[in-house]
Amino acid sequence: MKLSKPLTGILPVAPTPFFDDGRVDEDGMRRVIDCMIDQGVDAICILANYSEQFLLSDEERARLTRLSLEHAAGRVPIIVTISHFSTGIATERAKFAESLGAAMVMMMPPYHGSGLYPAPSGIFEHFKSVNDAISIPIMVQDAPLSGVQLPVDLLAKLARELENVSYFKIECPFAADKLAALIEAAGDHIEGPFDGEEAVTLLADLDAGATGTMTSAMFPELIRPIVMDYRAGRTDAALDQWKKCLPLINHENRQCGLRACKTVFAAGGVIRSDHVRHPLKPMSERTKSRLLELARDLDILALRWGK
Q1: Which domains does the chain have, with CATH numbers?
Q2: Is 120 exposed, middle or buried (0-12, 13-18, 19+ CB in 10 A)?
Q3: What is the distance between the alpha carbons of residues 171 and 193, in angstroms, rounded to a whole number?
Q4: Which alpha helices (DSSP H) does 73-214 contain, by range?
Q5: What is the C-alpha to C-alpha distance for residues 28 and 9, in angstroms, rounded to an integer?
Q6: For residues 184 and 182, what is the distance between their CA atoms, to the nearest angstrom?
Q7: Is 214 annotated as a binding residue?
Q8: DSSP label at residue 48
Q9: How far apart are CA 210 and CA 200, in angstroms?
């Protein structure tokens, strides 16, 4: 699905549902896609960190890529995460995603643990290999998980010199300042400056020039209006909505992580199980109870979607 215009708004990450025994729940994945479309998302990102991509086999990744794109069937653009330390593997993943109709790929810089990563020239060449192999946009994910420092001058170089590198998800500390500096440095070469981190810094990032956010799939129908109101000049309405959503955003970001969306989706009948693969552990009943209470207070769609 080729993009007809730059993506803005909210592009949430789809969780990967498993049965209680850890097997991939393919029907659950289809229901996740349907629920997210009903939530009014602008695109869906699959196989990201919040999709437990690091716990999936290569065969499972390929199967989920094909299943998600076939089931979405052009209803919304699909972004496929292709991150890998190996330049060759990342490039092949990108080509495979494009061949199945992905609208965009997202990738982190190459890293292995917090101490094994290439020099800036190697990072540039890694992205260049993917850029030269496909014709769809690439989103650079700048996240603390990698441990890789991506200075503004390197990100701007990627945007200026690699045609397809035009989207950036900035979710490092002080993301707003980095977004503002990147937009100033690369200007029209950036089609989509986005933030992440479950939108916990969204207002500051919108102030800095972000045009959208990549959250979890837990309640995008209530976060998207923040972006749309802000971009339409209704900043007071955006701030009011952000204040309303912030307790749940903060609890997800600081206490639950990727488990939050699965817990809510299971409670609402979207998926059968909130299982996370070992060595990840389920959240405590105390944390889950507070999560569901905050979600019920906002009457989020996912809690009643499957009932």
Answers
A1: 9-302 (3.20.20.70)
A2: middle
A3: 11
A4: 87-99, 120-133, 152-161, 175-186, 202-207
A5: 25
A6: 5
A7: yes
A8: S
A9: 13
**H/E segment holding residue 37:** helix 26-38
Tens digits of per-residue pLDDT, 85-131?
999 999 999 999 999 999 999 999 988 876 777 788 999 999 999 99
- With tokens 């052009």, the residue in question is 74
Structure tokens at 275: 């299982």
234-261 confidence digits (pLDDT tens): 999 999 999 999 999 999 999 999 999 9
Please tell me the distance from the alpha carbon of residue 14 to that of residue 276, in angstroms, as a whole number: 14
Distance CA(146)–CA(157), nearest Å, equals 20
How far is 94 from 80, CA to CA, in rounded Å? 8
Q: 253 near 259, Cβ under 8 Å? A: no
Q: Determine phi and psi for 135, rounding to 5 degrees.
A: -125, 10
Q: Give the global pTM.
A: 0.96
Here the tokens at position 144 are: 């603390």
**Which residues have C-beta within 8 Å of that of residue 25, sequence separation ≥ 6?**
17, 18, 19, 271, 272, 273
CA dist list (Å): 13 to 43, 77, 88, 128, 154:
9, 12, 25, 25, 26
Catalytic residues: 169
Question: Is-cis flag, bond preceding 193, omega within 30?
Answer: no
Q: Is residue 230 within 8 Å of residue 195, measured between CB atoms?
A: no
Query: Is there a contact between 4 and 208 (Cβ–Cβ < 8 Å)?
Result: no
Beta bridge partners of 9: 212
Cβ atoms 92, 116 nearer than 8 A: no
* Contacts for 281 with CB less than 8 Å, ≥ 6 apart: none
Mapped onto helix, strand or coil, the DSSP state of residue 129 is helix
Beta carbons within 8 Å of 35's beta carbon, 6+ residues apart: 217, 265, 270, 301, 302, 305, 306
